[in-house]
Amino acid sequence: MATLDALRLLTDALRADAALAGLVGDRVYTVLPKDKTFPLIRVVRWGGDLDTRIPGLVWLDRADFQIDAWATRQLQVYDVARCCVEALVERLPGRRPGGVVTASSVTSLATELDADFTPVLHRARIQATVTAHP
């Protein structure tokens, strides 16, 4: 039986999204690089569950993600966050290399200043749930 890597499916889809690429290029990561060019996006899977109603068969993966975007200007991080939300909700569902996304929803969006960087950067934090199968 085919397996599904929901994190790879999501990051590949975000990198391939033309509108998002117009803002961040291919700078969609699962781990931040040492040398960073902004704006950029980091995707982390922090939870979720598998549909195990049929013993021995895992079909649907309901994956919870945190998607962070950083930029040097507030308007820039808002544009990246808005485009990311649109990509998740409007363009992600459907057949993709690596699986089929049956549902995608954004559960929260927050923006803040991130003092972990010098100079301080603007940050958007998106919580999303993606349901997919092989």
UniProtKB/TrEMBL annotation:
Q: What is the lineage of its organism?
A: Bacteria, Bacillati, Actinomycetota, Actinomycetes, Streptosporangiales
In Swiss-Prot or TrEMBL terms, this protein is called: DUF3168 domain-containing protein
* A Pfam family hit: Tail_completion_gp17
Q: Domain of life, per the record?
A: Bacteria
